Amino acid sequence: MSAGNPATMEEQPVLITFDDNGAITVGTIVSTSVLDMTNVAAFSEQVIDYCMGRPGIHLLLDFSNVTFLASSALTELLRIDAALKTIGGSVRLCSLVPDIRNVFEITNLNTLFVIHEDDTVEKARARFERSLAVAAEEDAWSSE
Amino acid sequence: MAKRFFVKEFPSTTPAVAEALTEALSSLSATGWISPEKTFSIRLCLEEALVNAVMHGNQNCPECLVRVEMFDEGEHCRITVQDEGEGFDVETLEMPDCTQLGGRGVCLIKEFMEDVRFNGSNNSLEMVFNRSTFSEACA
């Protein structure tokens, strides 16, 4: 749906900030508590634009400020996931409020996305980093 | 007897949909059908229905209209979303698998609403929920 968007892509506020200090980049959704038809396209564009210049990026999306999410946001998360995979990266989610977590369960997308439930952002970041290290060790073993 | 308490007709544009959504939610809240703590699900259902009407029913044609009405039927609220499209079979829609980008809206509506159907006589999606579903009132 694009007819009469309230703002062009260029006019959309910054919806996500990135902290790439370490192996995991944390993307925190800011300036909005809602991801819906009015801003999901801009959200996706901002994430993909940031990530595509960083091959192998591992992104942890922090939803702690988000209280509502429409199915259009699920579509964009799938696009983000697919885009990161093309550059050898990955995306995980954390800090979902129960209502949003429920949506992922209803749609079975909790089987596709790793969702760090009940973890603080820092703990989720650490777990994500550890899982990558374990995967790298396993790859090294299997290639010997 | 059903009593209509909300009606809004609007063009198929994002700002118009956003405004209609806000007004519909306000009306549901003002009439006691939803409480502040339980707006997530009803907001989701309304947004999915309105966006589908615009995208699929009206094919993103800005001049095409969407009409939302809400009726008090005693213990139930009925919401109708009418567009200018051909309609679809609600019953056959299933939740897409994880490989599909879209198509989850109606399935989400079916998850939260007591009844969802397409009314072919007036080309509208009808959603029905019980008074206790999204409010603090006990059944």
Query: How many strands, which pairing sense, and closed or not: the largest β-sheet of chain B?
Result: 5 strands, antiparallel
Approximate shape of chain B: globular
Run of helices and strands of chain B: EHHEEHEE
| Main sheet: strand order of chain B | 1-2-3-5-4
User: Helix segment count of chain B?
Assistant: 3
| Major sheet of chain A | 5 strands, mixed
Q: How far is the N terminus from the C terminus of chain A? A: 51 Å
Radius of gyration of chain B: 14 Å
Q: Tell me the helix content of chain B.
A: 25-40%
Instruction: State mean pLDDT of chain B (0 to 100 scale).
Output: 90
Q: In terms of structural class, how would the helical and strand content of chain B be classed? A: alpha+beta
Strand content of chain A: 15-25%
Q: Ranges of chain A with pLDDT <50 over ≥5 residues?
A: 2-6
**Which shape of chain A, going by the Cα principal axes?**
globular
Please trace the helix and strand order of chain A, writing H or E for each element.
EEEHEEHEHEH
The value of Rg of chain A in angstroms is 16 Å
Q: Could you give the order of strands across the largest sheet of chain A?
A: 1-2-4-6-7
Number of helices of chain A: 4
What is the arithmetic mean of pLDDT of chain A?
91
